[in-house]
């Protein structure tokens, strides 16, 4: 395990599953287990051919606007709970991006929601939570 266990990264996508992970992080903060909380939204990279037609500042604005929508409910929950946090936006594959941000921020814990897919469906689709649990050096709590 690596990182500071009192520093937590919570990846969010605007879903009810992510909101449950945020609520869990709030409870951990209230109990004194979390002193620093980071929210992360990872936007998928646009297909390569799109870059031919859309300049980088426009792509960046698009990713920022989409991330802002995905972060809104988590911001609201944390604001109402009066829990301080920092937010980050990544672009790329969710699993590797989450792991890279946790390492960069020295977060010893990742708290994330899962969409509760059955094991057969996970075999076909893959799972961001499964990837993070498998590949991260941080402690990972998956909230269903």
Describe the 3D structure.
Helix content is 49%, strand content 24%. With 144 residues, it is an alpha/beta fold. It has a single domain, classed as Rossmann fold, CATH 3.40.50.620. Helix 1 crosses helix 3 and helix 4 crosses helix 6. The two termini are 23 Å apart.
Concise synopsis of the structure shown:
The chain has 144 residues and is an alpha/beta fold. It has helices spanning 16-30, 50-53, 56-81, 94-104, 119-125, 128-135; strands at 4-11, 36-43, 86-91, 107-113, 139-143.
Beta-strand content = 15-25%
Structural class: alpha/beta
Tally of distinct domains: 1
Report, as a whole number of angstroms, the end-to-end distance: 23 Å
Average predicted confidence as pLDDT: 89
The coarse silhouette is globular
List key phrases describing it:
alpha/beta; Rossmann fold; globular
Question: What's the topology here?
Answer:
Elements: E1 4-11, H1 16-30, E2 36-43, H2 50-53, H3 56-81, E3 86-91, H4 94-104, E4 107-113, H5 119-125, H6 128-135, E5 139-143
Parallel strand pairs: 1-2, 1-4, 2-3, 4-5
Helix pairs in contact: 1-3, 4-6
């Amino acid at each position: 395990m690596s990182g500071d266990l009192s520093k937590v990264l919570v990846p969010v996508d605007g879903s009810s599953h992510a909101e449950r992970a945020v609520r869990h992080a709030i409870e951990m903060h209230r109990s004194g287990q979390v002193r620093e909380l980071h929210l992360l939204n990872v936007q998928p990279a646009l297909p390569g051919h799109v870059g031919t037609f859309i300049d980088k500042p426009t792509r960046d604005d698009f990713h920022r606007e989409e991330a802002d929508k995905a972060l809104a409910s988590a911001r609201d929950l944390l604001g109402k709970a009066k829990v301080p946090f920092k937010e980050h936006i990544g672009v790329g594959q969710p699993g590797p991006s989450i792991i890279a941000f946790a390492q960069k921020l020295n977060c010893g814990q990742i708290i994330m929601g899962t969409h509760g897919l059955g094991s057969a469906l996970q075999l076909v689709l893959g799972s961001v939570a499964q990837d993070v649990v498998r590949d991260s050096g941080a402690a990972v709590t998956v909230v269903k």
